[in-house]
## 1
Amino acid sequence: MADLLRVSSVGILIVFAAGCETETLGDVTSGQGGSGAATTGSGAAGDTGGTGGAGAASAWMDAEPSQVSAVWSVQLGGLESGFEATPFADTSLGLGLDGAGNALVTATFWNLNGGGLSHLVKLDPNGSEVWKKAFGRYKLTGGFTLSVHPGGDVALASDLWNEIDLGSGPVKPANDGPHAAFVAKLNGAGQPLWSRVGTSNQVPAITLLNSGDAAITNRLNAFVDPPVAEPIHGAASLGPMGELPWSWAVAGLNHSVFGVDRASGDVWVVTLSESAVDFGGGALSGSKGGLLGARFHANGDHVWSGVLGEVELNADGVPLLQLTGVVPTSAGTAMLHGSFQGSLQLGDDVYTSSGMDAFVLEVGGDGAPIWKKHLGGSGNQGVGEVVASGQDRFLLLTSNGVSDLGGGPIGAEGVLQSILAGVTATGAHTWSRAVPLVQGEGGVGGVPSLLVTPSGGLVFARHVACEQGAASQFAFSTVGPSGNFTAEHRVGDCQNSLIALGPAAIGSDNSPVFMGRFLGHINLGAGVHTTFSDSDLDVFVAKIPPL
């Protein structure tokens, strides 16, 4: 029986990358010191897509990458007691860092019978296990969120199957039901502070506020009294003992996104309405194509609500828009993002798409629009992530065509690529660039992400392909003020059969910690990890040197 947790550590070695200079995307190759039948790249400042070609340096990189070894790497997976069969996939990955640099990670290990065993593991800054918790069986009907407080507390929300005991006595689904939503908070030592089990399997998202309270958002069926069967979406506060001092919920908000400001505790919600909605400021005459927004203070009081836009409906009356997130900023504003087809009206502007287009809208604390961006052009576009750092806004989008965010056309036809862009707090374009994405055996090798450093800098985390076959490495690039990559750390031995990037974070020491999945074996420079079988996906956690 394999261990759940295996750790290895070696010294740090930094050398220049060798044999991993070319990223291949089907029959299109970015110009990284080689020549291909077709090449793509971006200019030095990243504003205009250029043409790659032969040469010693990358056509779209701005500096030679450095090959680094992980400070430490940890394997989560293998057989675990209570499993009837070998796990065949590991999911529900979650990662957060506390103020001391400890990593709190989650993973769920599924077996052939469709059940799973989830774990919450704490690793110290050296990668050693501090404690771990197993918290029951899950099935595919539930969600999972993890939130870590800088002081070390951790909160989680998941779908509870059967009885569990986190250390304060057994907990089981209410009313002897088969499963139910479960939220809990533990301190830095792993001791439970409180837990709540709802009356349905509608799992909310949970966020630990800087105050130590928790906010739960989205699906609140499990935490309203009396319980209801129809979807109820909203927000609620959980106090120091898990008490519920306030909540609000609205039926029918099926297409909604929520954002929680951890500093202020304010909650933002944006929804595609199916009928008139009253968030507390009066009924909004919405329709299925109406884009409505609202903001609530940390005590649940209504601040504002209003109509943000209107989206086209298809022949069946279904809105052709997908909301992907709403991100509060430290300035008290929030950025809404999503994708749409057909036409989208935001304020006085109407956008029309040729395929699937992306959009970002920032509104003030009073709901007034500040700026908006439309990522259109050829092909399809989508929003991966939007982050704010002080007065700067950074966008990560995905495109398979040519786009223009204000700095001229970027990208290439038929090439799957990330579009990175920087804008000001008023939406003025400062830079944008296209970076090819690795495609391989499992599609894109994980989801690229943007990370903000403690000093407010930007890091782009992604896959890069090796020269040989479909193997790939993980890359962490620091992004300069004009969008140039000022440095890049690459990790991995280019011999891995299948790897996928998961959540990542940067601690106060400027060292990235990241998770992912692998098949067969993986070597990040701190020892080899091997899965139980050739068909078993396992999870890794690793830390690399400071950027």
## 2
Amino acid sequence: MFTENALDMLKYGRRLGVKTGDRQATTIFDFGFRDKRTASLEADVRWVWRCFSLEALAGTQELPNDREHCEGLQAPSEGLWYLALAKSSTTRQFVAAQGQTPVDCLEYLSLDPDDDVRCIVAASSRCPGHVFEALAGDKTAKVRRQVAANPACQPPVLYRLSLDSDYSVRLNVANNPSSSASAVRLLSEENDAYIRFGVACHRHADWQMLHMLACDQSHLVRQGVAGNHNTSSATMSILAKDTELSVRQLAAHSVSISASALRSLHGDDNLYVRRALASNEASGREALELLSQDQDMLVRYLCVTNLNCSARLLAQLAQDTDVHIRRAVARSEETPKEAFQILAHDKDVLTRLWVARNENTTAEVLEVLAADEHLGVRQAAAENESTPWAALETLAQDQDIYIRRGVAANSPASQKVLSSLAQDTDHFVRTLVAANETAPLNALRLLSYDESAAVRCRVAGNRNTHPQVLHYLAQDKDECVKIQVARNPFAPLVALRILACDPDPYVRLLIAKLKYTPDDVKQRLANDHDPWVRRAALRHTMSNTL
């Protein structure tokens, strides 16, 4: 981050020599706002102007007025050595902070008499190793602190700094990911709790050290041990009985916790500990069966989303009194046949809708849902690839045209006739044209602006629809239209990227299951807040890798 003077140098120094209408800026000697600048700043401007003189005299580029854009500008590397010889400390700080400053120039600035210049050099990721060694013995503590906090610093230098007399230096070493195991072990004996907390969280802390810190008097240190992936199961058993709530909660989240420690946490009085257990993939089926009887709805919900949830437990939770639990069971890919049969008659419409959408729903259950009283449920059953022909025949006779268009086969027609019918006043006719794969592109483009969502839905699902039209429909306000775009194998990648950010979880689920979804989109969906979207993205990413 530049200082105020350094930004002023960059802002006004590059404007020198540019002829403007301002009388104060008519020559290279008339620096802007001279009366408001100190003599030191005027010296800084002179040095920076010499660095930028060629570009400034050309008059081809003007600096922005705001400081945010000034910070992003970089000086030409050939002029940085010239600036490093400036008498002004601010100018030398400017050089040390540049990302393209030569390494030998940084070495020169590491000997600078000004503490701030040496601090900036010590914080640079491009600083060479021998310079780190020299700055580690600097007489000024704040310079050594910057060396100790720099991840680019070598482990031997950090070990040396772990013996430093300054508290902040040792604290920075404890928090530096590049610190060696020997340095971390040395700092584990510190009297300060914050240093020991840094050790407890460190990636190079071994299990013996963490076992010792698990009995630390500071709950902050014990929290660090409970959250460390290197902590052994035996140590987690100790932390599972900790008096501090936050420690027990972190232990309940750990994947390395033993079965005996998990059993000791099942009866915990704290709600958050039980929720952590229900979401932990290390929890076995026996543990989840106990947690499924919890009074808290979220504990039972997390049991459903847990990968270790058994089919028997899902069948049991299909009769839960809370509608959110039943909806979660309806979405699960592990739900057994008997649970689907129960949920197909659920009084909640959204529960039946998720059953109709589930690809693992049995054929006989889909036949029941094909006669559902709700339009959305029947439509979902018509679009489900697992729906049997008997159910599709029933849906083809449905009085609602939205259901019939979902299963009806359109007879081929000439493009001229289809173009004419695309402007028909009858909604059902336009729907049939939109679903016809022989329809001309101009007709489909016209129907993509139709006021009826059902018409746009068929355009979105038509394999002959132009990718540009699918890109437009991916931003449609209707959920069904976006679902059809996601299912269209010819949808462009830009449309898939838009749908991957859709607020509806079912749309994101479809994108996560596609084989041709870009890898960066799959990675983002692997961190989705919806558990089924995450699971689908991770499963398909792993299958593509294998």
## 3
Amino acid sequence: MLPTLVIGLREGLEAALIVGIIAAFLRKQGRSDLVRWVLAGVAVAIGLCVAAGVALEIYSRDLPQRQQEGLETVVGALAVAMVTYMVVWMKRHSRELKGHLEQQAAGLLDGRSKAARAMVLMAFLAVIREGVETVVFLVAAFNETGAGAGAGAGAVIGIAAAAVLGYGIYRGGVRLNLSRFFRATGIVLVLVAAGLVVNALHTAHEAGWLDAGQTSTVDLSWLVRPGTVQASLLTGMLGVQSHPVLIEVVGWLLYLIPVGWYVAWTPGRSMPVRWLAPALAVATTVAAVGVVVAVSPGSDDTSTVTNVASSGAPAVRSVNVTVTSAHGCTMDADVLRAGVVTIHVVNEDATAVSEVELMSGERIVGEKENLPPGFSGTFNVAVHAGTYTLYCPGATPERQSLTVTGTARAATGDVAALLKQATTGYAGYVTGQVAALVRSTRALDTALHGTDLATAQRAYMLARPYYEKIEPVAESFVQGNDSLDADIDSRAGDVPAERWRGFHRIEQALFARRTLLGTAHHGDRLLADVRRLQRLVTGLIFQPTELANGAQELLDEVAASKITGEEERYSHIDVLDIANNVEGSQQAFAQLQPALERIDPSSSATIARAFVTLESLVDGYRTRANPSGYRLYGSLTRADKTSLAAAVKAVQEPLSQVGSKVAGG
């Protein structure tokens, strides 16, 4: 709210001053009749600026996620350029602004017949210039803060205050030292602009335009805690992020130091131009390198894994979520303790709601799917202090806020070390699978640009396994209305026809229509989405509960869409998907198994045996008669499907308890 308030006040006052000075001059010259025309020009300019802002917002909403990120980058860069020009120009001209404008107005009044139009045009251009700057700057600030209501209120308050001050100056009742005012607000705006630099670098990476400098530097989540006033001020005013990367730290310093120095320099003091530029360059470079070296994580990682089994009472709070068609999702608590949260979900009669998710920002940290009316389920997540969202797609309302307070207890002893090894090992597994997915998808894209249908079909089969192994990770990335999993893996009917893309759009062309026509474009988009997944998982940190939940979700996928043959409805390679879902689930469990053997040896052994049985059963469907390496779904008998379902369930049931065990439940 504070950044947009300053923007509204600063830009609004510039426009109000110009209009006020013109109006006051006209009154002194006995031409009050022209004031109403000046105000008419102001009104038209304001209307055009508001329309431009609305049009920009509407246009950006309809863009796919990657194009949205690109547009935000462009808007952010324009905002930084505009504010830099604005504060530099005003620093130079604030003292003589009044005299300069009156001189212009006097010149215009010399031609009496054209005076009205000239004055209207002068006021119109002044307001339209400041208004366009304000729109661009506010849109960039909204994108950075993400708090639409608060940011909007700040802008309105700032503009209203500017209008009041401008009118007071016009009437002569308010005297303001413009030089000091613009210097003070200029310093604030430079801080805001430095934050916009960081945001623009971040969105440029999300848009696929910038891959350099993405090395993690420092974990500031203890300082910038999402949902707190402190985080809003630090991020909104200074651009400080909870997990800044190298390019963001360097960009922030390279902008803030030289521009901030110039704006803060005391007016009237001579500026040592000869040595200032090289000195600033050296100081900025040294500061950037020093900060990066200071904050870069070393090999001695002293971070601790939280919320695992230990002596004493576990930090768990159970939340009951009831889903009904009449009231949507209702919770029996919305303020939780940091630590492990166990969420029980019961769907009484809501046909439109089949899943419940707990989200941190736009990332799903826990979920329960496949909950038709009459079904229930439970999932466990480890949460730190901050604000979370309970998301029930299809409910009214779909999103509700939860607040987590307190500090989660750190794990100690051998179990903590084993769990930390598990999360590190799984992160490495995911990174490797995504790298293989990028390579195989690139080969598929190349085949789709060719003319050999059989080669393209084989390439499709070779790419599918890598996604199926780590699908829950992709499902956790939901940004606005854009779900990464939907972009990559949605089936016909899952999304509107005009938005359908990804693997199964290509599958339909290759196996149902048996053509390569029109597939090259979809191959390019799939490769871009897979690369986006790769950027998002780079450096991703997992919690032990995420491994447990992910292992269960993969088996849920098998039960919900693979055994029924709904996933690969054109190529019928569902058994290949089943095999890789099982492998991905088994890998996640295998990472947790050493710790689970310490926590609950009996449960660990039960799950391991059930996995062996399931894996052996799936291996029985291998064949060389099909390029996928497995029998096609159409060859499975009812008995085959029943056996698979039973074997999957035998793993699912004990596996569903692992989340609470590794979290300390």
